[in-house]
Amino acid sequence: MNQMKKFIFLLLSYFATFLAVKAQAPVGTIKQTSGNLSSQAGLFDSDSIFTISLKGNIRKLLNDRNGEPRPFPVILSYTGDDSSAISIPITVKTRGHFRRQSGTCRFPPLQLGFSKTSDSSSSFFPKKGSLKLVMPCNGDDYVIYEWLVYKLYNLVTPESFRARLVKVKLVDEKNKKMPESFYGIILESESQMADRNHSVTVKKGMRPQQTMYQAFLKMAVFEYLIGNTDWSVEYRQNIKLVAADSLSLPVAVPYDFDHAGIVEAPYAKPAEELKLRSVRERRYRGYCINDMKQFDSTVAFYNSLKNEIYKTYTGCSLLDDKYINATVKFLDEFYTTINNPEELKKEFQYPCDPNGTGNVIIKGLRED
After folding, report:
1. Among 7, 137, 213, 329, which is most buried by a count of CB atoms within 10 Å?
2. pLDDT of amino acid 326
3. What is the residue range of 55's domain?
């Protein structure tokens, strides 16, 4: 009788999971909207692309690349679901380090600041706080590629940053000529991500061994999947930490994937200390684990996600065939490795080699 109850429970669990997955719109189903947006929907509840306009002293804002970033008053506008124009006074400043440098990117990354005094009652943008806006560095394509990595990690765990692909139109109040609209990414804030997961943010530094074990393995293997070595728990480089409470072990949450091999931005190069030829060459950057059975559940997990991971790229209407084919090959290499015990051991035990570069801790740059 107990076996029958167990069978029924597993069967019901399977159908519940199946229905939940079916209810989610696939990443490949991307709609280019007319710009209209429902104030009843959450900013990150859809993958449809809408247009935001930023009007102000834009030229001066974009040229603010040195020293402490200063906020500029800007009007953020978009079209509501009733075709009405919605405008919100906000502040915008440049942010980051590497991508903010004038010699690196055409546009610096931006931070959109919202205040209680802003009339945003009819908007789905926050009434206070800030959101990051990822701007194109070397063209729209790489923005799309990075956005898809965020969507990939959303498949892995809800303890991930949600991202919304948008079209950005810049309007300079001094009538200075601005470029045509381009793609950008609005990122969920750290506090929003933590609140959604009923967690608190953790600011103190710690070693990766002090974080949630299985969650860390999933994260570290994901970074290996996308070919990203540009992260560090110790130095909080492109990593945020959240925990259920102040007494719980934290979960490492990655962000900023522009240096990943799957994105392959023109400026992306692995750190010299790792002795890698390019970002397309993978390197597992977790800590040393000699018992390979510890990876069994993580490997099984990524095998279970395989179809969804591939579909993220093969089903995306914004990608050309060349990039899709190259990415499928890159993913094939990952799955060949994790399903070959010898190759898996060679790659994931690399941090245990005292003469290798897998245990090198690289001090991170300032937040990007």
Report:
1. 137
2. 98
3. 27-194
pLDDT at 82: 65
* 50 shares a domain with 169: yes
| Beta strands in the chain, from DSSP E residues, in sequence order | 36-37, 50-56, 72-80, 85-94, 110-114, 129-134, 163-172, 182-187, 200-202, 239-243, 251-254
pLDDT-based confidence at 33, cuts 50/70/90?
A: very low
Are residues 296 and 205 located together in one domain of the fold?
A: yes
Of 177, 194, 211, which one is at a domain's C-terminal end? 194
Do 237 and 147 share a structural domain? no
How far lies 263's CA from each of 34, 96, 140, 254, in Å?
Answer: 28, 19, 12, 15
Structural tokens at position 167: 């079209």
3-class DSSP state of 261: coil
* 55 close to 173: Cβ distance less than 8 angstroms: yes
- Asked if 206 and 177 sit in the same domain, the reply is no
CB contact burial 244-271 (16+ within 10 A = b; e otherwise): eeeeeebbbbbbbbbbbbbbbbeebebb
Helix (H), strand (E), coil (C) string for 174-220: CCCCCCCCEEEEEECCHHHHHHHCCCEEECCCCCHHHCCHHHHHHHH
Residue with the larger pLDDT of the pair 128 and 265: 265
Domain tally, the chain: 2
**What pLDDT was estimated at residue 15?**
43
Residue located via tokens 């931070």: 111
Residues 223 and 179 in one domain: no
3-state secondary structure of 168: strand
Contact 144, 115 (CB under 8 A): no
Please report whether residue 17 resides in a domain.
no
Given a contact cutoff of 8 angstroms between Cβ atoms, the answer to whether 263 and 280 are in contact is no
What H or E segment, with its residue span, contains residue 276? none
Q: Phi and psi of 314, rounded to 5°?
A: -70, -20
88 and 113 housed in the same domain: yes
Instruction: Based on the fold, state whether residues 179 and 251 are members of the same structural domain.
Output: no
Question: Measured between alpha carbons, how far is 163 from 147 in angstroms, rounded to an integer?
Answer: 7
Enumerate residues 6+ apart whose C-beta is below 8 A from 276. Answer: 229, 270, 283
Question: Does residue 203 sit in the same domain as residue 179?
Answer: no
